[in-house]
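[SOLVED] Need 3D model of a two-part complex

Original post:
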Amino acid sequence: MRLASLVFVTSNLGKLEEASAVLGIRLRHHALDLPEIQSLDLEEVVRHKARAAFERLGAPVLVEDTSLELAGLGGFPGPLVRWMLSTVGPAGIARVAHAFADPRAVARCLACAVDGAEEVFGPGEVRGVIAPSPRGTRGFGWDSVFVPEGCGGRTYAEMPPAEKNAVSHRRKAFLALRERLEGQAR
Amino acid sequence: MRLASLVFVTSNLGKLEEASAVLGIRLRHHALDLPEIQSLDLEEVVRHKARAAFERLGAPVLVEDTSLELAGLGGFPGPLVRWMLSTVGPAGIARVAHAFADPRAVARCLACAVDGAEEVFGPGEVRGVIAPSPRGTRGFGWDSVFVPEGCGGRTYAEMPPAEKNAVSHRRKAFLALRERLEGQAR
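Solution:
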């Protein structure tokens, strides 16, 4: 599989922009909100989504999903974070995280390319903490409450896009995926 | 469709016992953990699950799913409550609910019978509040933190099973389903 031949299936334009910026190519794109299965296992969610996207489009596809694992909550909400975000917002996520003793969190992204014959995964992980309340105006989703390690205590939303894209869990995932796809092509 | 001809598809024996007790019949049962789709809309989750169960077994099936909607969190976690329970437990649910100003909650159950030709839904709803911490040893799931309205401030887990089954969201759902199925049969 070649990256340039894949169609990135997502309804989230923020993710499309980030992935294109990280990879330095204009990804082909199809806006489609695929049903996702309930699970705390990101790989299970992504595998199911990739197969559904491939069946739906009948062409090699690229999907990704994101997980925010709150240490104080035993990893919850994980891949279910979008529903927490849509109900309580970033401020609510911060409030929940700080109701427990441990504000640490892991932001995870898993990209997956599938063409029917095979699946290639690209994992990306960033450790950090949840801010006590939202800060910053950039980015999207829960960027305003996630403080990645080693970035001076700023949230993703306080970092210029290029700086966030240089360290983000999504960057790591897409670079890992590219590396594996290029390794195959050799 | 007749209730006695349906196979109750669930991997949760607590739910099987409750449903059988409420309906006063020994339901046929098939233990199967079906993938559920991510959504805050209980009907969407249950419809998808019912169709998957019917496809899998090739026979008329009965499924149900449960939702715990925390008022302070805009209805979160709703049908995703099982994942919150599996990570933070009932005590964690109580802690999260009380990190917000409003401890009210709605416990919802939606039963669904499907035979390929049609779907019949039975909704059940109970209003209440989330206790500050777990109380009681009966029941299962989040019974120890849900205090239904009009039951003297006790949690489900502090009530004898017969008493819980006389007021529960699951009872209401299964009785509503039976009524609709019997209405059809007339």
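Edit: Chain A touches chain B at residues 35-40, 48, 73-80, 82-84, 86-88, 92, 95-96, 98-100 (CB under 8 Å).
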